[in-house]
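hey so i finally got around to running the thing on that chain from the lab meeting. sorry it took forever, my laptop kept dying and i had to restart like 3 times. anyway pasting the input first so we r on the same page abt which one it is
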Amino acid sequence: MIRIFFLALQTELSTRIVARRTVVKPWFRGWCLRSQDGSRCDPFSPSFPMCCQIRQWMERKDTPLSTNSKRSMQQSSTLVSWYALKAYYNKIELIMEVIKSHCKETYVPMETVRQRGKDGKMIETERPLIPGVVFFRCDGSEVSVIRELLTDKAFIYHRQGRDKREPAPISDRELDNFRRFVDYSDHYERIDNQTVNLSKGQQVHVTEGPYKGFEGTVCRVKGNRHLVIAVTGVCAVMLIDYVPQAFLQKME
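ok and heres what got predicted. didnt touch it at all, straight out
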């Protein structure tokens, strides 16, 4: 058995992560590899076991996904959730055709407004609460197809933070709460999400009164505290009616 002596071996490894690929660059300084008889050993020879392992490590391609990663990706692609999109000007009819061909359920918030007709009389009409916004329910694979088909016609609301390119799923509970409130009451005012910082408010559950069962966020709007019902990152409405503090229960 050949005994190999390492004299003054210094190794530095720098690791750089690019996407899912790890590139390792070794620098060997002042090394000398010799066998017992004094002859040099070629460290890059395939017959050199340790170096062969290092070379295979350096030349390897992208690391395959683990079983858990593959399973999580499959689950996310088959998980059915609500999503929201914003249609560009005069594209809503074409967008609805595309969505209905891939999704079984859609929702467009509507509001009732009073306006004067051509004969001078006041009439009630319905119009979209948030112009151009459409909610649709589908799985991850279908939302990817819809995004490709509507590239120049609409944009799908995305996640905030690291996964900005991924469409943001909306929980059934959050959308159902918003949907029931809009259908139940007309004592609200639509507000811009960017003008209200919901993260600084207190999430509450209404326990008594006409709005019992609804969930929202108590935050300051236009200098006053109001109960805000929102779909995070998409839309929000502010309750005009006053809700006593005793009717509000903080949510953990």
